[in-house]
Amino acid sequence: MRILTLNCRSYFIQFQLCDWARRAVLARGTVERIELGDSYLTLDRPGRESRRIEADCPDHRAAVALILQALTDHYLDLLENAGGIDAVGHRVVHGGETFTGSTVIDRPAVAAIRAAADLAPLHNPANAAGIEAAMALLPGVPHVAVFDTAFHQTMPPHAYLYPLPYEWYERHGVRRYGFHGASHCHAARRGAALLGRDPAHCNLVTVHIGNGTSLCAVQGRRSIDTSMGLTPLEGVMMGARCGDIDPGILSFIMQRALLSPHDVDMILNQKSGVAGITGVRLERHDYLARAAEGDPRCRLALEMEAYRIRKYLGAYAVAVGRLDAVVFGGGAGYLEWLVRERVLDGMESFGITLDRERNRAALVDHREETVSAAGSRVPVFVILAEEEMILAEEVAALLNGDGS
Q1: What is the mean pLDDT of residues 185-196?
Q2: Which of 192, 248, 322, 397 is the most buried (most CB within 10 A)?
Q3: Within 13 A of 174's CA, how many CA atoms are on the CB side?
């Protein structure tokens, strides 16, 4: 089965073509500057030089058409024609309360995705535009929506409701939804497999680390709590998002600095977190490298990030009742060992003891590693969470019933 995955955002699309039977990536790339002019596609293939194709993409349909053109270019020897694609997987950020799992897309599903746009105005409209474009250009294959929020629909009301007027939930859908669901689901599956146990009897805490970071408490295959909320802004400190803060800060700073709601929203989402503490927006590997070299602001940001992750990890260890394992996924940067080391420092009272050497070597030679010490009561695993392959896994699992 050849699966094309699409992650459509407002002005760019990430895509990947994989041969699922061999678990092999055939090609991946991005289309940049959709609607903005000077659009271009970059295509990477294993063992080949990257290729750049410049073409005008005034909308998502033109961008998807450019992707299909690149994949069927006879010089690339990837596909003879678009008929070589067996299924398309679409990342959709918000499914509201409608979707509790991945779904084959039909007209009602597209309408529901658009209806959730108020909850994710920067994501769902672009997700829907990409879906409609791909369905028009590839009408003969199944299209599957994989929702960031779906895995967390098993949270109980006491975990997903905010202590706010209940009518806000009833009228406006104000509740915690959570994100990174496919990544947390994958981490939970792999954690159970590495334990050699039935997932239905595993209690885990999964940690997705990247520019966006979230944790999930998993009890017997089910998400029972997660750190992100109505939006991806809640939770731990991230690359440019603040995470949990005193909500009273907002009215205070709006009055003091004469900021508008739009100004504050932009600052909390784009100029806070690591970017706010360091004063500069850095790629994650650059930030961690500077922290390792002793840069004071980067070291402070690292300690703050690790401290907030550690607090959530401790809270979720209590929430699941009996912690069987911790699973770190997400970013594959070689310096992520530094974050894990800071996070897990001093967690022996929870039964977690880190093997520092194994942690520092994790993912260098393998895609999955045990980084806890031999005597650790709670194992700690690190997995390479390739989001596009996780998307393809969800598509295959839904269409085939067994993910093969």
Answers
A1: 95
A2: 192
A3: 10
Burial class (CB in 10 A: 0-12, 13-18, 19+), 247: exposed
Between CA 43 and CA 254 the distance in angstroms is: 44
Round to whole Å and give the CA distance between 58 and 325: 47
Query: How much is the mean pLDDT over the chain?
Result: 93
* DSSP SS3 for 400: helix
Contact 89, 395 (CB under 8 A): yes
Hey, what amino acid is at 56?
Answer: D
Q: How many residues does the chain have?
A: 404
DSSP string, 379-396: -EEEE---HHHHHHHHHH
Residue 79, pLDDT above cutoff 90: no
Confidence class for position 282, pLDDT limits 50, 70, 90? very high
Please name the amino acid found at residue 14: Q
Catalytic residue IDs = 148
Distance CA 269, CA 272 (A): 6
b/e burial code for range 220-229 (CB count within 10 A of at least 16 → b): bbbbbbbbbb
What is the pLDDT, as a whole number, of residue 332? 56
- Contact between 91 and 7 under an 8 Å Cβ cutoff? The reply is yes
Write the single-letter amino acid at 294. G
Are the C-beta atoms of residues 143 and 88 closer than 8 Å to each other?
Answer: yes
Q: Is the pLDDT of residue 356 over 90?
A: yes
**How confident is residue 362, by pLDDT bands cut at 50, 70 and 90?**
confident
Output DSSP code: residue 33: -
Domains of the chain, earliest start first: 2-147 (3.30.420.40), 197-387 (3.30.420.40)
Residue of higher predicted confidence among 404 and 221: 221
Give the integer Cα–Cα distance in Å for 320 and 313.
Answer: 11
